[in-house]
Design goal:
This protein is mainly α. It is built from four helices and four strands. The protein has a four-stranded mixed beta sheet. The structure holds zinc ion.
Length: 203
């Protein structure tokens, strides 16, 4: 459970407790009211000795004071109940907002993952097309060299240098490469990588 959910449970429990307190407080006030009403009836009926009636009158006064005190307590408990109810509402709103943010982030994540999947599919299909175009034999050679050359099977010739091993090509090699047909696979005599001829090869 998150700390926010714990806070909601705690606030609800506190609110329930205060509701119980409020019920008890209302009961206390009611008991005093009932007793005062009974005393008042007996006074109004005028039954009993003057001393009894005086005692009843005296008790009515103290009951009124007691009722006032209890009603103060009741108001204080009511205020606490209201502030706790407000706290529960605020926490529940925060919880709803967070849940909404989590939903948004989850949707963004799902969308990003879908995009990655699409891109991965495109890249894979692109490679398959290239493999089909190049032919099995050259692909097999490429894979073989790639395994034996640390992952780099083909490199550009740049300024008469093999882009794989960085060694300068000698004139014999350069001549051989220069006259080789465009679709012939030329390889470095040193590192055996496939060499790619470009405008910057310096041939
Ligand atoms: Zn080389």
């Amino acid at each position: 459970m998150s700390s926010l959910e714990t806070a909601i449970v705690n606030a609800r429990t506190a609110a329930d407790d205060v509701q119980g307190e409020l019920g008890k407080s209302e009961q206390d006030v009611q008991l005093v009211r009932d007793r005062a009403a009974r005393n008042q009836q007996r006074l109004d009926a005028g039954q009993g000795t003057p001393k009894d009636l005086q005692a009843l009158q005296h008790e009515l006064t103290s009951l009124a004071r007691r009722q006032g005190d209890l009603e103060d307590i009741e108001i204080e408990v009511m205020e606490r109940a209201e502030s706790l109810a407000a706290k529960v509402t605020t926490l529940q709103q925060q919880h709803a907002e967070l849940a909404e943010s989590v939903d948004v982030l989850q949707r963004e994540l799902d969308e990003a993952l879908r995009t990655f999947d699409d891109e991965a599919t495109q890249v894979a299909s692109g490679r398959a097309d290239i493999v089909a175009g190049v032919g099995d034999e050259l692909v097999a050679l490429y894979e073989k060299i790639r395994l034996s050359s640390g992952g780099l099977a083909a490199a550009e010739i740049k300024h008469r240098q093999c882009g794989g091993c960085r060694l300068e090509l000698n004139n014999v090699d350069l001549n051989r490469i220069r006259i080789a047909p465009e679709d012939e696979v030329v390889r470095c005599e040193e590192c055996r990588r496939i060499m790619i001829r470009t405008g910057e090869s310096g041939l």
